[in-house]
Write a structure and sequence with these properties.
The chain is mostly helical and 130 residues long. It is built from 8 helices and no strands. The protein has one domain: Globins (Globin-like). The N and C termini lie far apart (48 Å). 24% of the residues are buried. Keywords: Heme, Iron, Metal-binding, Transport.
Length: 130
Amino acid sequence: MNAKETISLYEAIGGADTVERLTRRFYELMDTLPEAAHCRAIHPEDLSGSEAKFRDYLTGYLGGPPIYVEKHGHPRLRMRHMPAPIGPEERDEWLLCFRRALEETVPDMKLRAIILPPVEKLAHHMQNKA
């Protein structure tokens, strides 16, 4: 690879397989951790649809194929999440699950350090109640 060639975060973390493991682990944690109960409560009983949408979103967000946009159009994340009451507890519990899932599925600390700050900023942006 020459100096002008770059790879996406999607490729750097391992592509579809890693995104699949990351999203699966994220929802497993949300579904089982007592400390994620508030976050879990604002999700549907069956998490499979949420998991699929999150996997598709992360794929494009990390620089992979724009699967989410192809299926659902512009993410409009805040608007789509407005019906769910997201306060500080739900936000922090969501981040707890994401951080753990990221640590468990992306071993490279430098890549995690690139991925996490914008995700944390987005989580704060999604909060819609005090």
